[in-house]
Amino acid sequence: MTTLTVRDLLPEDGTKGALVGRVWLPQANGPAVVAVRGDSVFDVTARFPTVSALCEEDNPARALSAVKGERIGDLDAIVANTAPDTRDPKKPWLLAPVDLQTLKAAGVTFAISMLERVIEERAKGNPASAEAIRKEVTRLIGDDLSKLKPGSDQAMHLKQVLIDQNAWSQYLEVGIGPDAEVFTKAPTMSSVGTGMDAGLHPKSTWNNPEPELVLFVSSRGKIVGGALGNDVNLRDFEGRSALLLSKAKDNNASCSIGPLLRLFDDTFTLDDARKLDISLNVKGTDGFVLDGHSSISMISRDPTDLVAQTIGKVHQYPDGFVLFLGTMFAPVKDRDAPGQGFTHKRDDIVTIAAPQLGKLVNRMRTSDECEPWTFGIGALMKNLAQRKLI
Description:
By secondary structure, this protein is α+β, with helices and mostly antiparallel strands. The protein is built from twelve helices and 18 strands.
């Protein structure tokens, strides 16, 4: 991992928005909730012990602006100290901007990625079979379902046609049916942030990044802001069986969120988030380069619908939750042999970016090579209590 700079972190409008992060403080042996203002980082943990608590405010952006906080350092120095290879453990470094919130993800929310999930299922996790199956699936159901509303009469008609042709799939069920796929991505507090290594299961041989918008939602179901996310995916595991979803999605360092949480205010709103264009760049040490993008405007289900299907009378989240919205990006560019498609290699640098949210940068390693996750909910509560912050 190369040393990151502020340029690798901030949105195009700099710090004009309400930007929230988390920083590890060596002197406190624990994390701080911070506000990023100008070239400085301010500790606001005395007022908001957790990011979750800040998100519970009636107006989180306004509440954050009302707190002066304690300056803990230059943003550039803290960002530069984040990469694990060059980190000085005696100085602060960035963490993922999420703590007590449950880590949720929505799947198959874009037509293009829905087709790829169908292909994975039919290929049984074998990338060599994918190209031929891709042509057959496209012949049967087409490649433009962007105008099809999930759960509509038209969608249900298409479902019956596909069933009659023995072409129905569980991925099509959640892609065009009335019920969205929403699953738990990873344990609370296990996310990695920008500048850190992201993890792949060491037994996976077909995998890919998933550039996504991550919504931050309060316990009342109110969407309060957003960040970028990489919902790292193992195509071979999930392709063999959808029941392997937890193994495909939940591994050490496989949930990346960052670089910062941008709270909704006059500079960034939910409508702005609905129009986000998220770019992806993968650079390998072998010289391979992959570029892609995901446009939230093409999502099949509105973000408010996905949130409403996650929280309500049948499921509550007392500390709030974050929700990955899914991706339209599905990598099909061959990396090695023709027809083999894309898969990660060790030390790939993945950059996910959006003008309003900055850049989320991670180096890919196997999960057993990444820094172990050792600081959980219990450790956080004990640390905050020792610091007399709760």
